[in-house]
Each structure stands twice: as C-alpha cells, then as structure tokens.
Write a structure and sequence with these properties.
Blueprint lengths: L1 H8 L8 H15 L1 H10 L6 H23 L5 E3 L3 H12 L4 H20 L3 H7 L2 H23 L2 E4 L3 E4 L5 H18 L5 H13 L35 H26 L10 H18 L4 E3 L3 H6 L6 H12 L4 H8 L2 E4 L2 E3 L4 H12 L10 H17 L2 H18 L8 H16 L3
C-alpha cells in the first residue's frame, strides 16, 4: 500500500509520510468545514432547498478536492467560496431579482470560461491587467460586506428609517447568543486552536440548545437528496445582456481567489520555484472543474480555500491529504440533522430569521479578508481613490457588483485624465467600458 501511495503522490520526494498526510488532511477539513453549515444557510435565503444545497456543497467540494489531489498533487482543498455565495444570493438573486436557476447558469458559464482560460493560458493576461491596488481593495471590500451581512444576521445591526441602519436589540436572546459565539470563536482563533471556526460554531449551537434558540433534530440520517437542485441551472437564461457583468464577476472572483490562495499556499509550503508554481495550470483547472460541477449539482462558485495552509502547517505536502479532506466532506452527508440544527436560523417574525450560530463566522471571515487593505498604496491618489471607492461601494450599495464598478470605472478614468493612462493595461479600459455599458443599457 505504501509503495502504491508513494508512486501516486511522491511521498518520499516531498519528504512526508502517510501519517503526516492523514493528519494534515484532517486539520484542513476542521478549519474549513464551517462551509457545510454556512453555505446552505446562505443559499436557502435565495429560495434554494437547504438540504439539496448541503448535499451539493459536500459532493462538489469532495470531487474538486479529489481532482486537485490526484491531478495537481497539492494539498489544496476547495469548496464553495465565501464572498461568491453572498454575491450569488444577495446581489444576483435577491438584489437583481434573478432566479436561482439562472444564477446557477451564470456560475456554470463562468466555470466553463475558466476552463477555457486555463486550457489556453489566457488567465495570465486577465490577472496582469488588474492593478494590485484594486485586487487588494476587492478582497477588503468583500470582507467588510460579508461582516456587515453577518452583523445583520446576528441582529446586532438592524434597519432604520432615519439613518438607514442602527444598533439592534442587544438584550434579545438570539443577539446575545451571536455575541457569545463571536467571543468564543475569536478566543479560539487568538489561541490558534485547530478548527477554531468549527468548534466555535458547535459550541454556540450547544449553548443555544437549552434556551430554545437552536433545535435538536438528531445526529445521523440518510444523505439528503440532490433532486431539488441537480441540473436545474438555466444556462440559456444566463446569457441575457444584463447578466454579462454577473458572469464576468463570478469569473473574476473565482480567478483571483484561486490565484491568491495558490500563491499563499505555495509560499508557505515551499512549492514556488523562481516565483512560479509548478503545475499551476492543473491547479486552476481543478478550480474551474469544481465550479462547473458545483453549478450542475446546485451550489455557487467552488474555489480554493486559504484554510489549506492550516493542513500544510500540520505537515501536509501532497495530494494524499486531499483524499482525507474529500472523504470527510462525503461522510458529512450522513450527519445532516446536526447541520440543520446549526444552520437553520431562528425565526423572530413572519418571514424574518436571525442566524445567531453562523453569523459570527461571517463577521470574522470579513475580518480575515479585510487585512488586504494594508497592501494598498495609499500614497498614490490615482491608486488610493479607486481602491477606497471600491471598499466603501460594496457595503454601502449592499452590492458587490456596484462596488467593483466603482473601482473598475474610476481607475482607468483617473489614470487617463491625470496623465498616467499608459500605466493602465488595455484590458482595464475594456472592463471599465463593460461596466459603463451595463449601467447605460441595463436597469440598475
């Protein structure tokens, strides 16, 4: 058995062994398995079946993780991306009034385009066209937007007729539970506890049980059915002119999430050779295939997870660790009642729910993403202003697409009018023009 695994995953060449890889795969799963709880809670708000999304999440993640491990031989795990899921649910479906079937079609198309970009090596041209200041601004903006949504779902921030938003009723039991959960997960993260987010979610759920804020449905059950979402994507509906920018945004978010994760993971594990990652094309192809499979099964964009660095810190060096992580995602299908207990939400009024167990995760994921703000060049106004407009645009318009538009339109215009037009890649002018046409031709 060892010789077979060594031949497939090159264990000796990568100075690792089976036990170390098993441990690394488990740690990676523990640090990212919160998505099993969060993803159905997010997409169910867009009208999708909770259990079907859960099944699609676990299966598509496992397929992409297995593909990455076997083809690219890296311990880089994948799952539906945080940020992409909110764009899918709150911007495209709830904000634009697009059906979730059409939104899945847009995700599917973006995945197919990503496959073509990966196959024909066009992705480098797209990546290099977007300035670093906007890349960091987008990551920061999405983080703040996610945190804002988390604060709302916790009941800490509520709507207000006069000031648009205000502090919620912090004496309300579900709000108190969310605050307790936020404190628990924060402490676990500070103490560098492996699987801090997962353990924090479970602890918050257990605390809410005796107070009726969380309902117990059981522990083990048969795997949920994929039928409500399987192959329900509307590909033809997604080709509407108004959704062109949506497809591009899905593609852009997936593209840069993957590139950022791969660079971070590669640097930590020592994979980078002269600044380049061997088999990078296979990594991006794994990501693209995961997105296509995910949309077909019924979930939003599947992308590489930075939490993979936790498994690498535990010793993982090859795709064997991914075999463990993927298997654990599949085993999660037999524990649906626990997932329902954690991610189902607490009803506070007719048609209104709070999510005190998962909301703290959104707040803290936002915190993790916001650190990119430190890498923006604030001394150059032509870089700082578009970055700032992007950062404030997303949460204040409650829309990721509009936030991106603020940056993609202002950047080339400010550079051009300030005599720095040659600093802008030609493709940025094209992307900016696409956003302008979107607002000119399509109802906002």
């Amino acid at each position: 058995m060892y010789h077979l695994l060594d031949r497939i995953f090159k264990l000796q060449e990568n100075q690792t062994d089976i036990r170390t890889e098993l441990r690394g795969g488990l740690v990676t799963f523990l640090t990212m398995s919160y998505i099993i709880f969060v993803q159905p809670a997010v997409l169910s708000q867009a009208g999708m079946d909770f259990n079907a999304v859960l099944a699609a999440t676990c299966i598509s993640s496992a397929i992409a993780i297995f593909f990455m491990g076997l083809v690219a031989n890296y311990p880089i795990a994948l799952a539906p991306g945080m940020g992409e899921n909110f764009f899918f649910a709150f911007t495209v479906v709830l904000g634009m009034g697009v059906s979730w079937q059409v939104a899945l079609g847009a995700v599917f198309i973006s995945g197919v385009i990503f496959i073509l970009l990966s196959a024909f090596r066009i992705r480098e041209m797209v990546i290099e066209s977007v300035p670093q200041s906007l890349q960091y601004a987008i990551a920061t903006a999405i983080g703040i937007f996610i945190a804002f949504i988390g604060l709302q779902q916790a009941g800490i921030i509520v709507g207000s007729p006069g000031s648009l938003v205000q502090l919620g009723n912090i004496k309300s039991p579900p709000v108190i539970l969310a605050i307790v959960g936020l404190i628990i997960i924060s402490i676990l993260l500070i103490r560098n506890v492996k699987g801090a987010i997962l353990w924090g979610i479970l602890a918050t759920a257990l605390i809410g049980l005796p107070f009726g804020l969380v309902k117990f449905y059981g522990v083990v059950s048969s795997p949920p059915s994929l039928a409500p979402t399987f192959l329900k994507m509307d590909i033809f509906g997604a080709w509407d002119l108004g959704l062109v920018t949506v497809i591009l945004i899905f593609l852009y978010m997936d593209l840069f999430d993957t590139v950022g994760t791969v660079i971070g993971v590669g640097a930590q594990a020592g994979y980078l050779k002269n600044g380049k990652l061997p088999r990078a094309g296979r990594v991006l192809m794994s990501d693209a295939i995961g997105t296509v499979v995910g949309a077909s099964l019924g979930t939003s964009t599947v992308t590489s997870y930075i939490e993979s660095t936790a498994g690498i810190a535990a010793g993982a060096r090859t795709g064997l660790a991914n075999m463990v992580t993927g298997l654990l995602f599949l085993l999660s299908l037999f524990f649906v009642p626990i997932v329902q207990m954690v991610g189902g939400g607490y009803q506070i009024a007719e048609g209104k729910f709070l999510y005190p167990v998962t909301a703290p995760v959104l707040i803290l994921v936002g915190c993790m993403m916001a650190k990119s703000i430190l890498k923006i060049n604030w001394d150059d106004w032509s870089e700082a202003i578009p970055a700032f407009l992007t950062i404030i645009g997303m949460p204040l318009t409650y829309n990721i697409a509009h936030g991106l538009a603020f940056g993609f339109i202002s950047y080339p215009i400010l550079k051009l009018l300030s005599g720095k037009g040659k600093e802008v890649n030609w493709l940025m002018y094209v992307l900016g023009a696409i956003f302008i046409l979107r607002y000119a031709l399509v109802k906002t």
